[in-house]
């Protein structure tokens, strides 16, 4: 029984950016122009093939009219909802040895 490899942050970010762009009914060309990047680069970001810098992410988010906080939260939820919980984390939660809020990093 094989386990799926963890998804990369850039892949999940790309999916979220594409979803947001489509919800706003923006084309790749229009969003890329507003962000000041090439259409090809935005396409590669959306497909999870490029690891954009924080400046590029901010520019794309600005072009989409959203914030880093909102998108980071969505990406985090996407990652944690599909990520396997390790035995150590599961045991800590079950034993209630962790009494404060628990944040899982992907």
UniProtKB/TrEMBL annotation:
InterPro entries reported in the protein's UniProt record: Cro/C1-type_HTH, Lambda_DNA-bd_dom_sf, TransReg_Diox_bact_type
GO cellular component: cytosol
Pfam families: HTH_31 (PF13560)
SMART domains for the chain: HTH_XRE
Boundaries of every HTH cro/C1-type domain copy: 17-71
Key words of the record: DNA-binding
A single GO molecular function term of this UniProt record: DNA binding
Record protein name field: Helix-turn-helix transcriptional regulator
Species annotation: Candidatus Avipropionibacterium avicola
Lineage per the UniProt record: Bacteria, Bacillati, Actinomycetota, Actinomycetes, Propionibacteriales
